[in-house]
Amino acid sequence: MANLEDFDWGKFDSQGFGGSYSADERAKMEQMYADTLNTVQEEEVIKGTVVGITDRDVILNIGFKSDGLVPVSEFRDMPDLKIGDEVEVFIEDQEDPNGQLILSRKKAKIVKAWEMIYGALENDTVLEGVVKRRTKGGLITDLYGVEAFLPGSQIDVKPIRDFDIYVGRKMEVKVVKINAAFDNVVVSHKVLIEKDLEQQRAAILNNLEKGQVLEGVIKNMTNFGVFIDLGGVDGLLHITDISWGRINHPQEVLELDQKVNVVVLDFDDDKKRISLGMKQLTAHPWDALPGEVEVGSRVKGRIVNVADYGAFLELMPGVEGLIHVSEMSWSQHLRNPQDFIKQNDEIEAVVLTLDRDERKMSLGIKQLSEDPWTKQDVLTKYAVGTKHTGVVRNLTNFGLFIELEEGVDGLVHVSDLSWTKKIKHPSEFVKVGENLDVIVLELDATSRRLALGHKQLEENPWDTFATVFTVGSTHKATVLEKSDRGATLELPYGIEGFAFPKGLAKEDGSAVEAGEQLDFKVTEFSKEDRKIILSHTAVHTAQPEDAKRKKFEKKDAPAAGTAKAAAPAAPKKEEVRATLGDLDALSALKDQMMSTEKEAGEKKLAAAAKARAEKSPEADASAEATESAE
């Protein structure tokens, strides 16, 4: 053994560790060492072998110069992990500041998951995931560590009402869309079901026949019907084919997810539309309609619908009759059916028509009471000259219709409303719904016609007007309106007169205007035509009576310059004077008589006006207001 004292430590330190190797020996040695190691790259997934397990980490050998550590928490899905097992890991860093190899099994699983997801989209393969939670509009599914969105519309072929029942369940899905920029994945379970249903659908459609009874499940419900799943094919059960009776909404008799038997009513191969029926599986209620139900018989039922034209009475589920609005009342004035009937009312009616083959029935309720025109006392009750009070039901251009009682109407012509006023339309005199006193003018019970009058309740004032508004008499009048034809005047006692344009000139030459109150002289009076013509011009251009007499004397005097005529003229002068005196006396007597008649007429008109005022509450109120104002 060499002496340690003779060892050259300086030479050893200068060469360093392995410095004794030559260059060829060193290269050979490094090659031998490199052959025993794997070449690894960062962000790569490789397989590693478990060489040790501690409380915190799992030690993995990946064939690199050093072993890597992975937290035990990343192996929770492998409770039976033991030394010697191989697992895939992700190389995060070949060497950290401490010279340690950094590995991650979690990231390795994510990388492998994305590879599987992209491969499933390219190859159209099926993946299995676990539903983690519910979210807005769908579900979140875990695909090997990657969260994918499963829309609610892609869960099943039928609408899903409760998403929570899928949470925690395994579900096979297909990848339908990947957004690489945001790492979003959209999957579908519905496409897998549709493939299975396509074969079932084809089999059902090939064997489908009208009248065939099938079993289905109610998958959707609307106000017009329900959609039934027949095992891959949907059919529509319209609301009118659910029950023989009338229903307002399918939910009254059916429920979602309910199994029902239906019959095929019709189908379209091209559009793949199937019409289904449920009520057709039971006998029609009309077939069970009792034989005692016939025209003229009375029936009871419930009002199931009220329309503008009438109401439907349900005698029994599926058997209905129409009560037209004209059959609800004897009145000739059609009103809203809801004025007589309300929905769900239990009423009695009379059968008017019945067709069992067509399954149609018309009913009436006015027939439960007697027709007022067929009553025995109708001829005496509404005899000509009888007075009544009725309700104004309708207004027309030529008059108005009054209902004296239900079913008994009469016409009041516009000319029979007032003696004094010229009414162009009945609306100027009365309104619909108001009461009006009338007198019967004509009666035709056979034709159900009554001619009525209102003005005939009062005495014709034109008989009295003839003594008040005599030709030549002067009266205060107010100009109501003025036109090119003339002016309409308001005279005392509510009567109207008319003045032509030539009678509207004032004394100063100006024209009379609307709203002015002036004296007018009567120039024409016609009781038959109820017409009074007046003139204001005649008031200030009238000649005095003595001037008229002088003109009359001058006209009757003998011609001057005739000797023969002058001799006998003397005795005739006295005769002429006597004649003129007699004329004066007659004129005075006539004026006195006319004045007396006029006073009597005015008193009569004043009494009539007072009587009308006493009948009118509004006039009484007006009179009281006037008295209090005074």
Automatic annotation (TrEMBL):
UniProt domain S1 motif: residue ranges: 43-106, 124-190, 211-279, 296-366, 385-455, 472-537
The organism's place on the tree of life at top rank = Bacteria
GO terms, molecular function: mRNA binding; structural constituent of ribosome
Q: Name one Pfam family in it.
A: S1
Q: Which UniProt keywords apply?
A: Repeat, Ribonucleoprotein, Ribosomal protein, RNA-binding
Segments of skewed composition (Low complexity): 558-570, 619-630
Q: What PROSITE patterns does its record include?
A: S1
Biological processes, Gene Ontology terms: translation
Is Ribonucleoprotein one of the keywords? yes
State the residue spans of region: Disordered.
Answer: 542-575, 593-630
GO cellular component assignments? cytosolic small ribosomal subunit
Which spans does this entry mark as compositional bias, Basic and acidic residues?
A: 543-557, 596-618
Where would you find the membrane-spanning parts of this chain?
none
Gene3D superfamilies of this UniProt entry? Nucleic acid-binding proteins (2.40.50.140)
PANTHER family documented for this protein: 30S RIBOSOMAL PROTEIN S1, SMALL RIBOSOMAL SUBUNIT PROTEIN BS1C
Name the protein family: Belongs to the bacterial ribosomal protein bS1 family.
What this protein is called in its record is Small ribosomal subunit protein bS1
Which organism encodes this protein?
Answer: Nibribacter ruber
Q: Tell me the organism's taxonomic lineage.
A: Bacteria, Pseudomonadati, Bacteroidota, Cytophagia, Cytophagales
